[in-house]
Amino acid sequence: MKKLKKALLVLFLLAVMLIVALVVYGFYLKPKYEGKVKLKKIQKETTVYFDEFGVPHIYATSSEDAMVALGYVHAQDRLWQMELMRRIAPGRLSEIFGSVTLKNDRFFAGLGIEEASAKAIAALDKNSPSYQLAMAYLDGINQYLDEGTMPLEFHLIGVKKEKFTIKDIYNIFGYMSFSFAMAQKTDPLLTDIRNKYGMEYLKDFGIDGSFNTTRIKNAKDIPQEYISIAKSIASLLEQSPIPSFVGSNSWVIAPKKTKNGKVIFANDPHIEFSQPGTWYEAHIVAPDFEMYGCYLAGTPYPLLGHNREYAYGLTMFENDDIDLYQEENNPTAANSYKTPNGFSAYEIRRKTIKVKDTADVVLNVKVSRHGPIVNDLIDGLKKDKPVAMSWIYTQQPILILDAVYRLSHAKSKADFHKGVALVAAPGLNIMYGDAKGNIAWWATGKLYKHNEGVNRNFILDGASGKDDIKKYLDFSKNPSAENPNWNYVYSANNQPEPIDGFLYPGYYLPEDRAKRITQLLNPKSNWDKKAVSEMIFDNTSSVAVEVVANLISNVDYDTLSSTEKEAVAILKAWNGSNNLGDVAPTIYNKWVYLYLKNTFEDELGEAAFKQFLGTHIMKQIIAKQVANKGSLWWDNVATKNQKETRSQILSHSFKEAMTSLEKQLGSTVAEWTWNSVHTLEHKHPLGSVAGLRGIFNVGPFGVSGATEVINNLFFDFTDDGNYKVKGGPSTRRIVDFSDIENSWSILPTGQSGNPLSAHYDDQAELYNAGKFRRMKLSKQEIVRTSTKLVFIPRKK
């Protein structure tokens, strides 16, 4: 008995020692939010105040010192995220994850981002402030890398330290630019439909822009293998450990429409969720500069920001800046292809991808005059039918470093405008408001035209030259509005009005959010911060109500069961809201999914239908098609000797939806609440390991919102009826120039990417409830309510 007691005591002591060791280790790995740190290359003492949500407020005697401090504190909270971000574009994820990420690496290594980055860097003015301050930021990261504690992920995976360089910054911007593009998902699918069924079947798709009736007002006078392109590239982006940029809302209200006579600015960029989240907030104060900004990991200048003078943000323009070209190989020489001037040799780029725990993979990427041949980069494509990807980002001068520097360091609206004009890709809607009462919206991107009759929704002819770009447009032709007489500007990724009679091609989102935004903005002229905060969390779709009316009109009410009649009654009374306890959106989304499946899958096939569900066109088509009795898609091509009608398809889909919902959620319709099926979990790359999920992932939560409402928490349609949120507002920001010291923001989880930090997930519940925290600018309040970390110059 004594021996047993002794053994138990020893085990107990060992357990205590292990717990103590883990606690000590945890404290060791935590970010340092107070105390003193010696740094090289800062000239004078620099103080960082971390507020109650972990946002650093950096006070320095020079911009250079401030940027070194920014790099250091950004790295201590987000080094793991920085490491992932810089590895994607050059194809270096497999070095740390192994062959599971090899497909991603093959694709991105071949795109040409790394080569374009090198070319842009070679042309940089090394004496420019944009370059000098970027190097100071990198120095801060690298000092943390040298002397700070490495993230938990580095220890678990075995990541080796490697200095950050200016090329990493450019590669991060390059990946961000590609993740905006929609052509790679959509063009091959449309080509296949056209080739199989003809142009008549595409009338319902609105690719001529006819569906986009709510347009942003300007203030100015395929064979089967093509489906594999879409499927493969979309899959790669979905599997990426870093999220894609997919949408966004923003509106800026002029003084004449606000209660206090000052500009109110609102922005919520929509990005696929991940943990850590996309943005890192930081406030910098130097004698010549002040900015409260939202930064991408590993980049020195904020893409979203404000100070006492102006505020800016972005949404995705959704213009088409990628074209796919069918090249024609030389039948007698495999490494050459046909051009308008005869055959030409492919450029061959040799790339080596290092793969953890296995042999290196060598790529020989063929590049035509249009761009890289994607057949060599993704699986499933026939090598004798090469398709090249032409992307504006890698073909035009990349001035992104100067552009984002100018946006965050502008001295006037005109100065800010110069920065906007420098962005060739990606296409963005840059939103602007200032303390002087100015509001503006500019669309960035190098826009271009083809010959008349060339349809960029399809894979183009690369051999003849007839489908090549014929004209690049001057920036003055980009859509924009400055101080319009309707007293607001907005963007919801919807199509702008034509300029000079030309409707810019793109992959614009449905008018749902745009229509709701204009419905709310137009009648009201006394906007304040509280009203804007309610609007930015708005969960209502007026378009969904119209769709429901069309759906119900095709159902024979007399043939319905009592449960089905109860569901119809709920839908009839629905105002389009998607709140936690609503039942109608649960019924609506199941019905819509099954209507789409029963309408399109017979023609497209299972794989292409799944791809169709991932495009903006799917979202565009619903409202118009359910109202179109004569659509060719209603007929099921798999049934012989009969022709299905709209009423048959929609009625059958409703019956299926009800059966499915009863099986999933029970027979009590009142219990089919939206929060029981619409859930959000912020996933970390290591959270896929069951034992680590609770450490690294945040959630799951039942959430309000839905696809294409202002609070755009979007999801994929699936057979099981569980709508797992993929993405949504990556931040919600409201800047009120009548109370600039107390503008509002919120992040989906938290400021820190370190799971041991108190700020890893401390904003999640506020975010889910539509609440905000203040973005403080008052030094007196910041000092009073914050912890203090002081950087001291290290003597040589």
Task: Summarize the SSE layout with pairings.
Layout: H1 2-29, E1 35-39, E2 46-50, E3 56-59, H2 63-88, H3 94-97, H4 102-111, H5 113-122, H6 129-147, H7 152-157, H8 166-179, H9 183-197, H10 224-239, E4 249-253, E5 264-268, E6 270-272, E7 280-286, E8 289-295, E9 304-306, E10 310-316, E11 322-326, E12 329-330, E13 333-339, E14 342-345, E15 347-353, E16 361-367, E17 387-391, H11 392-395, H12 400-409, H13 413-420, E18 428-434, E19 439-443, E20 448-449, E21 460-461, E22 471-472, E23 480-482, E24 488-491, H14 512-521, H15 529-536, H16 542-552, H17 562-572, H18 584-604, H19 606-613, H20 616-625, H21 646-665, E25 678-682, H22 693-696, E26 698-702, E27 714-715, E28 723-729, E29 732-736, E30 742-746, H23 764-768, E31 773-776, H24 779-785, E32 787-793
Parallel strand pairs: 1-32, 3-7, 11-21, 25-28
Antiparallel strand pairs: 2-3, 2-32, 4-5, 4-24, 5-29, 6-28, 7-8, 8-9, 9-10, 10-18, 11-17, 12-13, 13-14, 15-16, 18-19, 19-23, 20-22, 25-26, 27-28, 29-30, 30-31
Helix pairs in contact: 2-6, 2-8, 5-8, 9-10, 12-13, 18-19, 18-21
Structure explained in plain terms:
This protein is an alpha+beta fold and 796 residues long. It is 36% helix and 19% strand. The strands form seven sheets. Strands 1-32-2-3-7-8-9-10-18-19-23 form an eleven-stranded mixed β-sheet, sandwiched between helices. It has a six-stranded antiparallel β-sheet with strand order 24-4-5-29-30-31. Strands 6, 25, 26, 27 and 28 form a five-stranded mixed β-sheet that branches. The longest helix is centred in the first third of the chain and has 28 residues, at 2-29. The protein starts with a helix and ends with a strand. The model is unreliable at 15-28 and 220-228 (pLDDT under 50).
